[in-house]
Design goal:
Elements: E1 15-17, E2 24-29, E3 38-42, E4 48-53, H1 55-65, E5 68-69
Antiparallel strand pairs: 1-2, 1-5, 2-3, 3-4
Length: 82
């Protein structure tokens, strides 16, 4: 299944997997920043893989890296003809 990230899919606490599920990440949030407040943190070692990102930049990075969510919320699905 192919998953395309959109800005509304990006929120703090969402778990993300590498394309081959070799590593898991979590989307983090830094309240001290303006719009560039999101980061991506590795759950295996706590390394901040990306930081200072907007929701749009996180979505773009996740799409380019082929990452996918560990769970898909049924509310994420939209009817094809909607």
């Amino acid at each position: 299944m192919k998953y395309v990230w959109e800005p509304q899919d990006v929120y703090a606490g969402r778990h993300v997997a590498a394309h081959n599920r070799s590593e898991n990440y979590i989307i983090g949030y830094s309240p001290g920043c303006r719009d560039d407040r999101f980061c991506i943190v590795s759950l295996s070692d706590g390394m901040v893989a990306q930081q200072g990102l907007t929701k749009e930049a996180v979505a773009k990075h996740l799409n380019e890296a082929g990452k996918r969510p560990l769970t898909v919320d049924p509310t994420d699905w939209k009817a094809a003809d909607a």
